[in-house]
Amino acid sequence: xxxxxxxxxxxxxxxxxxxxxxxxxxxxxxxxxxxxxxxxxxxxxxxxxxxxxxxxxxxxxxxxxxxxxxxxxxxxxxxxxxxxxxxxxxxxxxxxxxxxxxxxxxxxxxxxxxxxxxxxxxxxxxxxxxxxxxxxxxxxxxxxxxxxxxxxxxxxxxxxxxxxxxxxxxxxxxxxxxxxxxxxxxxxxxxxxxxxxxxxxxxxxxxxxxxxxxxxxxxxxxxxxxxxxxxxxxxxxxxxxxxxxxxxxxxxxxxxxxxxxxxxxxxxxxxxxxxxxxxxxxxxxxxxxxxxxxxxxxxxxxxxxxxxxxxxxxxxxxxxxxxxxxxxxxxxxxxxxxxxxxxxxxxxxxxxxxxxxxxxxxxxxxxxxxxxxxxxxxxxxxxxxxxxxxxxxxxxxxxxxxxxxxxxxxxxxxxxxxxxxxxxxxxxxxxxxxxxxxxxxxxxxxxxxxxxxxxxxxxxxxxxxxxxxxxxxxxxxxxxxxxxxxxxxxxxxxxxxxxxxxxxxxxxxxxxxxxxxxxxxxxxxxxxxxxxxxxxxxxxxxxxxxxxxxxxxxxxxxxxxxxxxxxxxxxxxxxxxxxxxxxxxxxxxxxxxxxxxxxxxxxxxxxxxxxxxxxxxxxxxxxxxxxxxxxxxxxxxxxxxxxxxxxxxxxxxxxxxxxxxxxxxxxxxxxxxxxxxxx
Length: 679
Hints:
It is built from 19 helices and 26 strands. The chain is α+β, with helices and mostly antiparallel strands. Helix 2 crosses helix 13, helix 15 packs across helix 16 and helix 18 packs across helix 19. The radius of gyration is 47 Å and the shape is rod-shaped.
């Protein structure tokens, strides 16, 4: 694991995607992947019909279908086998090359003469194939002769329960006159029918399925003309050239399904109508009834049930009730046309998985969830479109479910990883902001030390950040033995950026004030700090500031305002008073600004309060502001007498704001500084 983590990002991603692909490829055989894959394949079969409306069945294959009208005309099923014998004789006389029955005749019927007539007609006609079946032995069911095996090719695998498997062959007499073709196609896990046995294994030998046996008869092939390579193909050495029909290792063929509606329209002729047309033409000398179907000469006829009321029906990609002889006819049509499905080998799918998914996952690294979702959706839609077009154009059947599920799982993993990285980054940033906030609060001057150094002043200050780092600040410091400087400021915005700008502004203001010492003038301090801030202010930050200089000996207070709230005077026995003062432009927006200096005088017992907009603009749950009226009420009602301490006044204000904003949370930094001239 350590070696894997030490690899560069791209190889590590490729290996990770490749490993995920291997896991999903192994899960592909599970039922919970197999069933949706079947449904996806059925969807492609159905939608292909809209892109390929010109497909027609090969005219060499014709189905003599037992329809509902035939049952009404002849009677309930099963019919006398004499009819089948006569139909075989008529088709042979008309020049049909092969006749197959997708019907089981495993037991003699009640009419032995009809059985003998059928067997005799089959023997005389030649080229007859009758369905057989392989199944687990039941009590009383004997095993029949499976007929001649396919001698060439690799040996057939032996099943675990082979001793229990028996062959249901045509009844004695008929079996010797015909070729047996097997039809025991198992349903898929969802009950659908999509495969048929092209060959079956029995006792270590391969035997033909009904479709293969029919084509061997049609092309007059011997067993030496057929080679079975399990897991790859069945090779047919036909007069038209070799046919390589793909099969799995058990000999099953995946049918390239076309619309059964076309099959019923184009490929099926009524059994009774065909019988009547042949009789009228061959026995009575009537002209051939073209409406009954194509002339039998040179064609292969498959006799099967197409009436919904009969048992030989099952679900396919197109319908829950489809005549199962359609699968045999469709397989014969596939082989005649060489119209096979193509499946990519597993290694190619896995290689494509790695090559396509890796850059997509890399492109989504660090992206927002919406962008990651859009990349994933676009990739999945592109794959679906490509799979559909390749299937419609070249019969290439790409798997849909596990590649899409795998890609979605990988994208989900990528999103979770991005979320984890973002979360870790946010934790680190939050820690940095908390540290910055702690550093910022640590830079605030200590109130107790200031009060001890200046007993004629009763000072209190409060700063409550809305976030870990604040954009507000206050400061107070001595310029000389008789002059004290007080500052309250509010930087636009909140958080780490505002805190950084705040520290810069605070440093400049203090430096300019101390440089002038006793000759300091508030308007000059603001002008010089503004020029310095504007010179390097590339993010258009600004700070509103009120800065005042208090002369201890006289109580005089000179102040200048840079876009901030005016100070409030609290005098004994009088309501709070907002001092006069124009709000000049905030610091940092542009250089060359002039600021106006105003003056007032504090009598013993008077207080001045400097505060930020977080006080009056605090919001309750209904979105209402705290406002000036509540501010005045809070700071004037802390005690009935006029000599409440600065701490008590600010405590009363903090309690009032806290009660007002209960349940709403703090929306802005709250800062206030209050000092009283002692008696």
